[in-house]
User: Fold these one by one.
Assistant:
Number 1:
Amino acid sequence: MIRICIAGGTGQVGAEVVRQALERGIEVSAFSRRPPMPGTAKHHDGAAYWAADVATGSGVAEALAGADVVVDCLEGRSRKAIKGFADGGDRLLHAAKMEGVRKVVLLSIINCDQVRLGYQRSKAEKERRYAGSDVETVVVRTTQFHSLLAEVFSAGSRVRLTPVFKGARFQTISPSEAAAALLEEALGSRLGELHRVRTVGGPEILPMRSMAQIWQTATHARGKVIELPLPGSMGEYLREGQNLIPEQTFGRETFPAWLAKNADSL
Ligand SMILES: NC(=O)c1ccc[n+]([C@@H]2O[C@H](COP(=O)([O-])OP(=O)(O)OC[C@H]3O[C@@H](n4cnc5c(N)ncnc54)[C@H](OP(=O)(O)O)[C@@H]3O)[C@@H](O)[C@H]2O)c1
């Protein structure tokens, strides 16, 4: 039987990979710096949870022991975490090689190499480290998550505004369908090359303004929808539609459907 280790197995996508893998009868281990307590929302019975930190390497080899495939769902948003994000990937890849892991699957962001901001650069740099690894790797780049747009709108609502970026459209995907794409790659056979990149998107492309209105209706939030210009490479990325992949609609769950399903937590 295959054994999968999920790095960042308590995150919004990682925990879904854990859940879906267990549902398919796969043996699962997962690690994060703070493993979940049994009985809490992030804990899935049947998975073996480990405390490990890719920033230092502590506990990583132990968590990976016996795994055939590793799925990297790690995140790093603080300045320090962004700076060390790719090095954390190196530590994970090194431990994977030492532990005889066959394949490592990385969750990344569509065209992250086109944005010259620290956060996106850290993703692109990690992708490059993966492409240089001795172990087989698949990078799964996804479009933005439905939850990201909900976070942006919700942040504005604190000052009774719903911000939208001028000219931006999104093809958002649900975190659970991003997890399904990762699991599909984790379980798939090698397709030839040692390193492969696959990009997947959500089911439909919507102007950000329409998404703001859909979000307001779903959450009963009031507030003026205001259009903000987004300068720099992030603005270009969105205006040029580099965040879209209409020919790869992997996800089926639409933004309104995802909002309806998560109404209690929005
Ligand atoms: N948001 C989007 O629209 C979007 C779109 C495409 C791709 N992505 C990418 O998807 C990835 C996952 O995102 P997410 O939202 O699921 O992340 P998340 O919810 O923040 O989860 C991150 C996970 O990584 C763990 N972690 C963080 N630092 C760690 C460290 N040093 N050592 C070990 N574990 C660590 C966290 O647990 P602890 O904190 O307990 O360690 C947690 O389990 C990110 O790389 C993100 O860029 C995001």
Note: DSSP finds nine helices and eleven strands in the chain.
Number 2:
Amino acid sequence: MEIAVLSGKGGTGKTSITASFASLLPKLVLVDCDVDAANLHIVMRPNTLQESIYVSGHTATIDYSICTHCGVCVDYCRFEAIFNNNGTITIDEIACDGCKLCSRVCPQQAIHMIQNDKSRWYVSQISHGAMVHARLAPGEENSGKLVQKIREEAKKIADQESVQIILLDGPPGTGCPVISTLTGVDIVVCVTEPSRSAFHDLQRLVELVQQFDIPMYVIINKFNIYAELTETICQWCKQQQIPIIAKIPFDTQIVESMIACTSIVDYAPDSITSIEIKQAIHTILKQHGITY
Ligand code: SF4
Ligand code: SF4
């Protein structure tokens, strides 16, 4: 059973809620699918067991000892990544898509492809299970494929260790890494807050999730900072037939727990916030017949 926690907008408290779910589940494999800006490991403080290289793509490079500056490669590059810089043929590494066409058409065989191998993925141990997360190097591409990679590793671990639940902390937005996070999951939890931008992004996210036909729940964080908009979100969720499983008040203890690098349910287990989060995960497990 794979549960993805998502939020269309960043900063809604999604990672805090995921960390709390992870603390409450007795055994799980936890995956941080936000490979562009992973931060769940800061809260979970895992013990790293394995670090692996992720090759995110290739970049063309010119061997100037044999390049004749004929310009053939410039004409063929569809990404305008090769240009004539005052007589020197130059490759823009950021614009290069790694398609390898230039290396094939170069009459001197002066272009080589080098691996983009600065990204990493990790398998770690947390207090009651395993964690898989990754770090995509700045400017590198294929974040969706990296999400796919770490999800595959998580499934292997879950199978090997007979773990029933894989919990995914999704990236913000509705782009490629979110789609990689959603593909094949069983349950989606959308975390939102009563702000115009968060509601707008929730609507976009729900529209996306509905295309995947995955059971969905909503958690409203900081619900009391804008009661009128919270009511609008509740009405909208009702129309969409999406259950709201928690309404969490604005709580400075969440910030304190993050500073203390722990989840709110460990930091303040008896707080209203923790009780709401406990009820939320309990509702999900009960609805889907998962017993621990
Ligand atoms: S095609 Fe080859 S030889 Fe010609 S400019 Fe490009 S790299 Fe240099
Ligand atoms: S690998 Fe493709 S995108 Fe990169 S410079 Fe060569 S032709 Fe252009």
Note: The two ends are 13 Å apart (CA to CA).
